[in-house]
Amino acid sequence: MQAQLPEQEHQLQAGRWNRKVRVLLIEDEVVFARAVAKCLQQAGYDCEHATTLESGRELVRRMVPSVVLLDMRLPDGNGLDLLSELVARGISVVAMTAYGEVTDAVHAMKSGATDYLKKPIDLDEMLLTVQKAQQAAQLKHHLDYSRQRNAHAIERVELLGDSEEIKEIRAQIERVAQIAARSDAVPPTVLIQGETGTGKDVAARLLHLSCTNSNRPFVHVDCASLPAELIESELFGHEKGAFTSAHGSRSGLIEAAEDGSLFLDEVGELSLPLQAKLLNVLERRVVRRLGSTKEYSVAAQFIAATNRDLYKMVQEGRFRSDLFYRLNVLTMKMPPLREREDDILLLAQHFVAQTERRYGLEASPFSDATIDMIRFYEWPGNVRELKHQISRAVLLCRGEQITPQDLALPGVEMQAARALLMSEQSELMVTTLETAEKTLIENALRQSNNNVSEAARQLGITRMAMRYRIDRYGIKL
To answer: Ranges for the Sigma-54 factor interaction domain (predicted)?
Structure first.
């Protein structure tokens, strides 16, 4: 179930890339402060200057800076008095101390400062330090947003269904959680397979919630949607100058996952060179940014998902066999909706209630003809298609019931007409049609030796539709 995203998302999306980074300089030496401010402005920063703690507090409230350059010795107090307030607000602080005042620098770092500078300050060093503090602030905002979003969304994620297939998936998730609880080691890698729309992302989120604390990051990487020229930098990060547009250092999504979970959706879309780098991360549990020689340890759980046949891709040389076997430690196969006959109506009713709550609408039940249509349809887009079609029907419904016209499934106009005919004709007509249909089904089952799938093929309907009619007419196999 989707939740309303917090306001921080709008700030992150709308303001992160479309405005200059705001830097507040709190320094009482005016001449020095002017030189620093000019340097920052020339480098593209939006810089404001305060000379006291009190005026600094006012500017913080007004401009909401990303980075604060804070002198430790000010006319109205020690910079440490303000530092803790800034850190609590998620602002990166660079402490500035006079030469020899090592104690101030130590106290500042213990209080949460991102970095410190010793006076007299080298302006080039100052720009590099501000850049690092800015990146630290961006990463913190990203992770804070991720945690808030997950707190709203993950705790309400459910893998709904009473079918044996879904019960087995839930049992597998519980088993992985039990394994993770017995050891301090990182939970095992899990590969989730299944057609598009079967709920692989839901299973991944449930795995994350079951194996880690909910306040740890859940980083979702859609390998199919990231541009090929950017995906390596997005995953592994880069150092300044690693490529033409790398104007600064940046951590990647693997680092951002910290000790939470990294969900690699559509992992089969990764190129062979990237597959080799990912294998190295999984094997050695370290990541190295582009253009760097330093390695960072990786503590995240890896969850991969694909709608492709990776084994076939291995045979065709399009997927590394060693990576396939490394990912294939624990495998979950999400069943298509057409194989979850017992769950379709339950899911449809759940999506009706969900849409009505979200938009404050009155309850609208399905008509009998609509229920027939929902069971007739094969749902090639699986649960995702069911959810979107049901939501659309609820929003367009003007009567007391959701009708086949509201549902408007593609390619089932004749089924809709037949369902309407059966529901609106006289009792005699309905009885005649039902008798004929029951006879056809019994004959098909007799000719196929009670093979339900073969009988369904003979009649030109789905196995699911056949099972529904067998139950409806009480036919014994």
So the answer is: 159-395
